[in-house]
Amino acid sequence: MTRVQTASHHHHHHPD
């Protein structure tokens, strides 16, 4: 899934 870095980011997620 492609999830962009939101304002409320609590975990380091990168676009897959």
From TrEMBL:
<comment type="function">
    <text>This protein is involved in the attenuation mechanism for the control of the expression of the his operon structural genes.</text>
</comment>
<keyword id="KW-0428">Leader peptide</keyword>
<dbReference type="GO" id="GO:0000105">
    <property type="term" value="P:L-histidine biosynthetic process"/>
</dbReference>
<keyword id="KW-0368">Histidine biosynthesis</keyword>
<dbReference type="Pfam" id="PF08047">
    <property type="entry name" value="His_leader"/>
</dbReference>
<keyword id="KW-0028">Amino-acid biosynthesis</keyword>
<protein>
    <recommendedName>
        <fullName>his operon leader peptide</fullName>
    </recommendedName>
</protein>
<comment type="similarity">
    <text>Belongs to the HisL family.</text>
</comment>
<dbReference type="InterPro" id="IPR012565">
    <property type="entry name" value="His_leader"/>
</dbReference>
